[in-house]
Amino acid sequence: MQNIVIPLLNWYYKNKRLLPWRIGKDPYHVWVSEIMLQQTRIEAVINYYHRFMTELPTISALANCSQDKLLKLWEGLGYYNRVRNLQKAAQIITEQYNGVFPISYQEILALPGIGEYTASAISSICFSLPEPTVDGNVLRVYMRVNNCYDNIDEVKTRKQVRKTLVQIMPIDSGGFNEALMELGETICIPNGIPKCNNCPIKKSCQSYQNNTYLELPVRRNKKSKKEENYTVLLFLFDGMLAISKRKNSGLLRNMWQFPNIETHLTLSQIQSYLKDRGICFSKVEQAISYTHIFTHKKWNMCSYVIWLDNTIGFEGVAWVSFQELKDIYAIPTAFVPFKNYLKEKVDQDVEV
Questions:
Q1: How far apart are CA 118 and CA 34, in angstroms?
Q2: Catalytic residue annotation
Q3: 281: Cβ contacts below 8 Å, ≥ 6 apart
Q4: Dist. CA 277–CA 314, nearest whole Å
Q5: Pairing label, strands 226-237, 297-308
Q6: pTM, full prediction
Q7: pLDDT tens for residues 76-115?
Q8: Measured at the alpha carbon of residue 128, what is the angle toward residues 124 and 134, in degrees to the nearest 5?
Q9: How many CB atoms sit inside 10 A of residue 151's CB?
Q10: Sign of the alpha-carbon dihedral angle for 151, 154, 158, 161
């Protein structure tokens, strides 16, 4: 592994992508970008990052941001606990560190939502501490370079990788960590054929020499996802639509959603459901179906558009315009196809 350090750094200095959070080494910028990049592609993050930094340019601004605004800024990135923990950590930094980002690895690691990988990234990039970042990209590069068939989902494997990388960490620890990640993202790619001909460390790569790189890394088989069925109710009244807030616990907690029922209902069942609750409607129309996949769950959703005569019988909902939904209320990605369908439906009715 020691042989990869210099050629990898030279390649990175020459070829690294110009990303907004790489301008300077502000720990706030690096921190926000690393949290955004968890389970999200770089290309998808850049616009979110610019918008987030424009609205919340400092740790203090993040700490004091309202929850609705915070979730709206994060809308579309998913995994909303990431941004909730981001704000919790910002509040701790504001209260305990006078708004100055802590500089020791252990202090950074102790912040909510920050694990070993993120703490190592901030520590090395911003403070030049010799802390290796071990993510999926780094693990893939490591396993291929060493032609290693250890399971990367096991904790002991990650610990061994980290131990080895600590021993070869150069003075520019941040550059080395970013170089490994950059190599994994652009050359030693996870899906498809890696671009070995363009790899600066192929001479040291044992899986390249043995033509075994497509077999690596080894992972355990994924568990099947739990499936749940929902019927989404798209209520319309006088140009307004109904949204409700999810519970303060569980998946997508405190997010805004369209009212829904945890089962699949037919058109006649929906009509009976509305009549039983004294809801006056003029028309019910079957709408789109959509399946949304979470990390551990799969939601199979059908939907109905319901035109109301009045709003009697409704509790716990907010009646909002499409413009307000766009500007103010954060809707989880799982419900976005229904929002888009409903907007198109209303626009068609207006044109008619």
A1: 6
A2: 34
A3: 274, 306, 307, 308, 309
A4: 9
A5: parallel
A6: 0.84
A7: 888 899 999 999 999 999 999 999 999 999 999 999 999 9
A8: 20
A9: 12
A10: negative
